[in-house]
UniProtKB/TrEMBL annotation:
The keyword Transmembrane helix applies. The chain crosses the membrane at residues 21-39, 45-65, 167-185, 221-243, 255-274, 281-300, 306-327, 348-367, 373-395. This is MFS transporter. PANTHER family: INTEGRAL MEMBRANE EFFLUX PROTEIN-RELATED, MEMBRANE PROTEIN. It is a multi-pass membrane protein. The keyword Cell cycle does not apply. It comes from the Bacteria. It is found in: Cell membrane. It comes from Allokutzneria multivorans. Keywords: Cell membrane, Membrane, Transmembrane, Transmembrane helix, Transport. InterPro entries: MFS_trans_sf, TM_effector.
Length: 406
């Protein structure tokens, strides 16, 4: 049997990862610039509202974008999204050079979020069509590295651009990132998808996608695991670490060290997964990673000093990367080509889409009950994600198709 080359040796997949990572970099620059401009024009409270409003179109349109990715050319949707976001950013840069008002920021944020929501399900639909099934695991690892690097670089780069040239420079630079992403993606040649003889009406297509997910026991269970994992993870990492650092007297450097520890751990975990392919009993691997992350969250919460807290966030990152890679590759390997866009859109909703809601809930609960109980409760939700992985045999013993053939 011929052994497929690793995904990182596939030129067009490397180009895809570069294009998606640069697009994510642009997203990060935009949200930093948006928050800075909102604080300058109004207040931190108003900035929070503006950021929450900007997330609403993504939340509402992620699922609605799924049928578009399955009905139309996913690559063209990604390229079109990049092109439109570049134009939006150039318009925003022009506005910032003349007069910036808070209502203009809100309008731009809403339009940007709507266009951005189309990119993610299209990307999820396209990715598996650039690889063979046995390349999906290390392909997911390479993408994890690229996206993680973009997220780590995007925020400080956005801050630097705003410091040097204000909102106008940040938006102009952001437009460049989307144009570079467009150029990287436009020459890809994904495996074609066999289309139905007659195209379903849009809403019928959406309903068919939801029925497909609900009837597929492995995919619907993975969706539940992803939701529990996300609920337990995003609150502690986005708000909890800042609250802990403030309460323990570690200050802003403490937040930076803990996030750096998480980033280093995630990078190491993704690098390991480039070489290690988990093909059998994947549910057990997911469960071990989720339990380990729960231990890391609890460890950071109860750590008596910053050094142990940083070590705990390294553990979170070290296991978080493989967890996402195993869930993603297992889902991709078991999704029919005709439903990839709709499956990807629901996955994005349950991970990225609910993030603002979880962050708001964790912040409110921490103010009412205290940071430590809420962080420990989040660790408990994270551990709960391991339960279906261990109890349900079709997930516990799940294998990739090439493992089953072997």
């Amino acid at each position: 049997m011929t052994v497929a080359v690793p995904a990182y040796r596939v030129p067009q997949y490397r180009r895809y990862v570069a294009g998606e990572a640069i697009s994510v970099l642009g997203d990060q620059i935009w949200y930093v610039a948006l928050s800075w401009a909102a604080v300058e024009l109004a207040s931190p409270g108003v900035a929070g509202v503006v950021l929450a409003v900007s997330a609403v179109p993504r939340l509402l349109l992620m699922v609605l974008g799924g049928p578009l990715a399955d009905r139309f050319d996913a690559l063209r949707l990604m390229v079109g999204s990049d092109a439109l976001r570049a134009v939006i950013m150039l318009v925003a840069a022009g506005i910032a050079l003349t007069a910036t008002e808070i209502w203009l920021l809100v309008v731009i944020a809403l339009i940007f979020g709507a266009v951005d929501a189309v990119f993610m399900p299209a990307a999820g639909s396209l990715r598996p069509r650039l690889l063979e099934t046995e390349q999906l695991s290390d392909g997911a690892a390479l993408r994890e590295l690229g996206v993680r690097a973009a997220m780590m670089l995007g925020a400080p780069l956005g801050g630097a651009l705003v410091t040097v040239g204000g909102l106008a420079l940040a938006c102009a630079a952001n437009a460049v990132t989307f144009m570079v992403s467009l150029l990287a993606l436009r020459k890809l040649r994904p495996r074609p998808v066999e289309l139905a003889p007659e195209r379903e009406p849009y809403w019928a297509s959406l309903r068919a996608g939801l029925r497909y997910l609900l009837s597929h026991r492995l995919l619907r269970t993975l969706m539940l695991v992803a939701l529990l994992f996300n609920i337990g993870f995003v609150g502690p990492m986005n708000i909890g670490l800042a609250l802990l650092s403030e309460e323990r007297g570690w200050g802003p450097p403490g937040i930076g060290f803990m996030l750096a520890g998480f980033g280093a751990g995630a990078a190491i975990g993704a690098l390991v997964m480039l070489r290690v392919r988990v093909r059998r009993n994947i549910g057990i691997g997911i469960a071990v990673s989720a339990l380990g992350e729960a231990v890391g969250i609890a460890g950071a919460t109860l750590a008596p000093n910053l050094g142990l807290a940083v070590a705990s966030t390294v553990l979170i990152g070290l296991l978080g990367g493989p967890l996402g890679i195993m869930c993603g590759s297992l889902s991709q390997a078991n999704t029919d080509d005709a439903f990839r866009g709709r499956t990807s859109s629901v996955q994005a909703l349950l991970t990225l889409g609910v993030t603002p809601l979880v962050m708001a809930a964790v912040g409110w609960l921490a103010g009412k009950f205290g940071t430590t109980p809420v962080m420990l409760a989040s660790a408990g939700v994270e551990a709960l994600a391991a339960v279906p992985c261990l109890l349900l045999p079709w997930l516990r013993r799940a294998s990739t198709p090439e493992a089953a053939r072997g």
